[in-house]
């Protein structure tokens, strides 16, 4: 089963909606199937089988084999190696016949040409493009405009290494803003923030708060124990949902009571909060039912 076929509209729409709204993107090296089963049990919105940084060179071949085994009857995203390596072609070749492949996370996306390489091998497969260098950031608007790209993701560690900067909120502010603006102008979903290096929950929560202030709506993670925090922090709070209901009650379900210019953005914001809240409620119910099987 390769990806040169027309997927049913309903399935494609559901997959695209999840890619647009997903909060937690858990990167897991496919070293063995048991490790992947353990990761799924933590209920990430998107499981990402990591064939790039998570796997040393000598284990790339065996990791591809495990990934292919997993995707025969289960689903998942795959982070593939970047276009400057010979590994990418090997990744794409084995994924062509993977029915459970949900999408591709492309490491170190430097240009639209990198996207073209992946989409030529895997037509109709959504792509999350990782921006990890200064040159990539300069190309962010063009990368975001590529039709297979559904979101941008921020590769913080490599970005900091490329620029020789610390990963402070101040040091990353310009990059985060650039990714959010590029996504908005390309009319794709808001970007995914990079993993938090620290392990404690408070630091992860603080990093998420910072990312949210810049307009990001999801986060990569290399630690399964961060998933609950990520999902919680990127979901509308009970207070924001209550406020949104009050706003809709005031302005009307269709905005029929809007009177001033200030009312419209309030209505749009409230509608978005309630839509996300309902979606995540359905998503969590689906994940719970799946784990119970």
UniProtKB/TrEMBL annotation:
Q: Which GO terms describe its biological process?
A: oxaloacetate metabolic process
| Superkingdom, natural source | Bacteria
Give the molecular function GO annotations. lyase activity; magnesium ion binding
Query: Where is substrate annotated to bind?
Result: 79, 132
Do you know which InterPro entries this protein is assigned to?
Aldolase/citrate-lyase_domain (IPR005000), Citrate_lyase_beta/mcl1/mcl2 (IPR011206), Pyrv/PenolPyrv_kinase-like_dom (IPR015813), Pyrv_kinase-like_dom_sf (IPR040442)
Summarize where Mg(2+) binds, as residue positions: 132, 158
Entries under Pfam families matching the protein: HpcH_HpaI
The UniProt keyword set, sorted, is: Lyase, Magnesium, Metal-binding
Q: What is this protein called?
A: Aldolase/citrate lyase family protein
| Taxonomic lineage | Bacteria, Bacillati, Actinomycetota, Actinomycetes, Mycobacteriales
């Amino acid at each position: 089963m390769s990806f040169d076929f027309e997927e049913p509209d309903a399935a494609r729409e559901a997959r695209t909606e999840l890619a647009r709204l997903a909060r937690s993107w858990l990167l897991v090296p496919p070293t063995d199937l048991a490790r992947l089963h353990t990761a799924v049990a933590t209920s990430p919105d998107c499981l990402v089988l990591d064939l790039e940084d998570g796997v040393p060179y000598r284990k790339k071949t065996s990791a591809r084999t495990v990934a292919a085994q997993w995707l025969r009857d289960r689903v998942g995203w795959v982070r593939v190696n970047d276009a400057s390596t010979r590994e990418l072609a090997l990744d794409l070749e084995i994924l062509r016949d993977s029915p459970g492949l949900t999408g591709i996370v492309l490491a170190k996306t430097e240009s639209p040409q990198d996207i073209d390489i992946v989409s030529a091998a895997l037509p109709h497969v959504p792509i999350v493009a990782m921006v990890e260098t200064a040159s990539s950031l300069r190309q962010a608007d063009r990368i975001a405009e590529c039709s297979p790209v559904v979101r941008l993701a921020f590769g913080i560690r490599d970005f900091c290494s490329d620029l020789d900067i610390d990963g402070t909120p101040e040091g990353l502010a310009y990059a985060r803003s650039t990714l959010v603006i590029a996504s908005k102008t390309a009319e794709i979903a808001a970007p995914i923030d990079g993993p938090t290096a620290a392990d404690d929950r408070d630091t992860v929560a603080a990093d998420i708060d910072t990312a949210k202030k810049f307009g990001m709506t999801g986060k990569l993670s290399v630690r399964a124990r961060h998933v609950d925090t990520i999902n919680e922090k990127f979901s509308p709070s009970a207070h924001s949902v209550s406020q949104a209901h009050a706003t809709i009650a005031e302005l009307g379900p269709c905005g029929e009571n809007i009177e001033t210019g200030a009312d419209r953005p309030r209505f749009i914001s409230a509608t978005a909060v309630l839509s996300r809240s309902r979606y995540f409620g359905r998503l969590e119910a689906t994940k719970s039912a799946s784990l119970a099987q």
